[in-house]
Amino acid sequence: MTTKILALIDALGNLVRFELLPGHQFDTIGVAPLIKDIQFDALLGYKAFDSNWIVEELDQRGAQVVISQRPARAQKLKIDATMYEWQHLIENYFCKLKEFKRIAMRACKTDQSFSAMIYLAAAVINSR
Fold this sequence. Notes:
It is built from 6 helices and 4 strands, in the order ββαβαβαααα. With 128 residues, the chain is α+β, with helices and mostly antiparallel strands.
């Protein structure tokens, strides 16, 4: 069994919200619940999040799109290269999260216990 953790990280590198997805699901499916009812000025993301509906949603919110684009995109978007460099905060958070063996190895048998472990790890990371 594989599980994807889709996380929303703030500008300081702290976990705001996360969604668990089956390993075979597209990443874009979990984006709507992540950004629901949250205000932000920009959204940084990888090529997996380069979707027209996400770009349209961010435009409606007045948020800046800082998502690396798939090569097949017909209309290229301009992204702020300086802001895109802050992408490492997301990678750093996942590295910190994977320091917890139960999360890295997906040792929990249910999604509920796995989510609880992520919340616990996030609390420990924030307290450091």
